[in-house]
Every structure is written in structure tokens, then in C-alpha cells.
Amino acid sequence: MFSTGALLQLLGCVLWDNWWPMLVGIMYVLVPMPYLFFGSTGGEGYAIYGSSIQSGWVDAGKFLTGFSAVGSIAIPAILAHAKIITIGALIMELAAAVVLGATVMTYDYFNSRDNYSY
């Protein structure tokens, strides 16, 4: 699934001979970074008013991850609105975003399962 999404991303640039949509490729690299830096804290943290200190960092990481994910959809839409890329390239980029998003969700689903009974 990941290679299909990457292929759609690349085809969105090659078929319309315009490499501006590759800006979204930078966003695909940046999307998991805030969650990796802020969201994967171990331990329980200190209790302050019923919550932990670390939950604020986890929430900040989730917010920045969501903000980056929205940017990966907004960048091709803005480029198409400004007539920098064509509608066909926009559709190809959005299809790549859907496939890559489904890949992440599928990985998360199977990774979160504790039992591996088939």
C-alpha cells in the first residue's frame, strides 16, 4: 500500500510535467515527527490536578501531527487553486494521500492488536 501511495505521488508530478506537488512529499516526512518527538513518552509522569505533565506534550505532539497531516492535503489544493498544478495532478495527489493514510491506519490497527489469533 505504501509503494502504491508513493507511486501515485510520483505520477502526480510526472504525468503533468510539474514537480510542485512534490512539496507534499516533504510533508509526508514531517507528519510523524511531532508525534515521535512528543507523543511517544514513556512513564507515568507527575500528577497535577488529575493529569500528568507528559500528557500536555503528548497532546501537543498529536496536535502538530494533525496540523501537518492537514497541510499534506491543503498544499495540493492551494496549488490547484492558484493554477500552479492541474486538476488531474490534484486528484492524483489526493488519491496518494488517501492511500498513504489508509496504510498508516491499517498498520496502526494491526500493531495495536494484542492477540494474534486468526
Automatic annotation (TrEMBL):
Keywords: Membrane, Transmembrane, Transmembrane helix. InterPro entries: Vps55/LEPROT. GO terms for cellular component: endosome; membrane. GO terms for biological process: late endosome to vacuole transport via multivesicular body sorting pathway. It is a multi-pass membrane protein. It comes from the Eukaryota. The chain crosses the membrane at residues 20-39, 60-79, 85-110. It is found in: Membrane. Its main location: membrane. Pfam families: Vps55. Belongs to the OB-RGRP/VPS55 family. This is Vacuolar protein sorting 55.
